[in-house]
Fold this protein.
Amino acid sequence: MFTHAPKPTLIVHGGAWAIPPEMAADHLAGVGQALKTGHAILNWGGTATDAVEAAITILEDDPTFDAGRGSFLTSKGTVQLDALLMDGATLRAGGVACVEHLRNPIQAARLVLDKSAHVYFVGPGAEAFAASHGMPLISNSELVLNRERIRLKDAKSRLSAGLADITFSGALAHDDKGPETPAEQLQDHHKSGYPVSGLSPQGPDAGETNPSKLATPSQFDSHDTVGAVALDQYGNLAAGTSTGGTLNKAPGRVGDSSLIGCGCYADNQSAAVSLTGWGEPIMKLVLGKWATDRVAQGVAPELAAQQAIAYLYQRLGGHGGIILLSPDGQCGLAHNTPGMAWGIANAQGLRTGLYI
Ligand code: ASP
């Protein structure tokens, strides 16, 4: 029990991947804006769920990120979006997947959380539910950017040329494993683990953009799923994640982001978490729940975040990033990709960066 009101805290991420230097400023500005909006809501007495929804709405509206307009395209050239919102006080959750006609899937997820006896809707059923609660249905073309048409074409040429996917590992840390490698195939020098960048006890330096940590520019490297976790002054946690998924995904594919306990989870009795990275390995490890369980067992979020990403790599050769927040406001951030756009707002102020 808290003897005084908890200090409102918000952590956001804008995807963990090989962020090219020319995209650094847009990523910092985007997470900064989401952070300011969400933190203001917390400071005015808003709930953690309200703050997470508002922060993610800003990131979905920003075409920099792989969520909402500007998302990656499926192999058919359409945008298909997934999102989950979870309230740690009640364990109520709302999820939508494979929606094609909603500008802000996180708002549809909020409607599911608030107004449905169900927890998860997909495709046309999700859109019909959102429309029945007043959300406008838009044409899919409004979500598609020309930048993404070019990126899809490049990805397809790369695939037919047999080139490895370096989306998450990046050129600098390329390890020839693609999105995932079975543990038995990891080479000996990888078995001991892969470098995990995590929050140090001193915390990260604000606005760091060390170019050596950023990727060699490439049209192919991109992953900007967005997420947020919040603690409000009432002591409640919430988490949300929203994504356009992976580039060139098969229509109908759903990743980790919107699945409870995989890319997102919140429980006042453990922690709130949002993940990003190649979804398949994250799903197989139910990594969000894995990380929050560690916090419930007494591991500090700072360490639990690093352990989760180390486990992702050691078990399946996966790459990704995580934000984790405990009920007493301790923050954990970690990634094993070259970069991860992040922001933290708490009593110490607002900080953003592109790697930990
Ligand atoms: N996790 C997302 C997915 O697999 C992608 C990402 O985080 O960028 O759909």
In short: The chain has one domain: 9-353.
